[in-house]
What we know:
The protein is an alpha/beta fold. It is 33% helix and 24% strand. An eight-stranded mixed sheet has the order 3-6-2-1-9-11-12-10, sandwiched between helices. A four-stranded antiparallel sheet has the order 13-18-20-19, with helices on both faces. A four-stranded antiparallel sheet has the order 15-16-14-17, with helices on one face. Helix 6 runs parallel beside helix 8, helix 7 (198-206) packs antiparallel against helix 8 (214-223) and helix 11 packs across helix 12 (395-405). The chain is globular. The model has no long low-confidence stretch (mean pLDDT 95). Residues 9-10, 41-42, 47, 73, 136-137, 151-155 line the site of aspartic acid. Magnesium ion binds at residues 9, 152, 155, 210.
Amino acid sequence: MPILVMKFGGTSVATLDRIRRAAKRVGREVANGYDVIVIVSAMSGETNKLVGYVEETSHLYDAREYDAVVSSGENVTAGLMALTLQEMDVPARSWQGWQVPLVTTSAHASARIEEIPTTNINAKFGEGMKVAVVAGFQGISPEGRITTLGRGGSDTTAVAFAAAFGAERCDIYTDVDGVYTTDPRICDKARKLDRIAFEEMLELASLGAKVLQTRSVELAMKYKVRLRVLSSFEEQTDEAGTLVCDEEDVMEANAVAGVAYSKDEAKVTLVSVADRPGVSAAIFGPLAEAGVNVDMIVQNISEEGRTDMTFSCPTNQVARAAQAMNDAKDRGEINFHDLISDTNVAKVSIVGIGMRSHAGVAARMFQALRDENINIKVITTSEIKVSVLIDRKYMELAVQALHDAFELDKAG
Ligand code: ADP
Ligand code: ASP
Ligand code: MG
């Protein structure tokens, strides 16, 4: 039998009624002749609640126990989905990550999938089971501890299963009907894309568009998984949703495919550091060792041998960054007058493979922000993206202005 992977996100399994709706969709695919692997998220809000419990219980928590707690939301929905399917006379059973076993690295809270053996589940399909319902987001480490794949990780579970089982398609059912030119919740002119290239989706996801977890796009690209994003609330046709596919198969000719934003970004400035060889290494070495994910970097023009160094990192890593810098200062490795952090910033990015062949895209972006009087604090570019750090209060305005400036509401 051909295999289909269907993943239902938190809002799509938020109530028993919605689980029934999702199960009906699964039942239809079984009737179409597929063996189905269903990947479920926790009911919406559940994972946040569990994270809150952990943080309230223990400030510097043991990441292994964090994973034991936060993975549990998916166990509930997997069991409920299997029961719902059974009620519909569809032979189904649930699997927690360790039962598969979905083996991951030991990097708790951000583990990577190492192996998905197909034997157990295939044996059950062979015995007449039609649907394997698998709890997303979770796995087991080589030490036998429960791990999780990072927030939004059920997308990655789904794509990894599709790759491992050679599924015909991996359908990601969510609360929007596809991938849009930007988050439709903050820009009402956002346009749904019928297709988007893997590389563009990868950039959009890593720059904040949470519709797919970044790692899921990486895996789909690597293993050539046919990946589709679609709504669990609307009736579907074969052409519904957005297909994430190779660049050659995308018809759009716009220089910019989409706009992404991230609020999870903070700016840290080291005021007055010595401007001499080796200073950047002395700053960014200890930051890397402390596990700080530095994103953007700017160094000011130096004056009398001293300069300011600014970098951005995730908001929840600012304390760690400050600690690493103060320790390096105490060891005499660097010298700065002050460390200023600003968490009231946001990163807004434009993404598009068309940028490779279109000149002046960055200039147009800066012009659009200037027209709205939005000050740019830091800029970074790569071949297919330009990102700026701005005051958080202008984030939505910036997204809308850029969407207008690049006429993303019109198909290219
Ligand atoms: P799920 O619970 O189904 O995994 P998520 O909340 O993780 O859903 O992801 C879907 C959300 O992603 C949408 O509700 C939307 O607000 C957001 N989003 C951000 N950028 C985009 C985009 N470019 N296209 C579609 N959705 C986007
Ligand atoms: N429930 C997890 C989260 O909220 C995983 C997921 O939904 O993809 O991050
Ligand atoms: Mg998600």
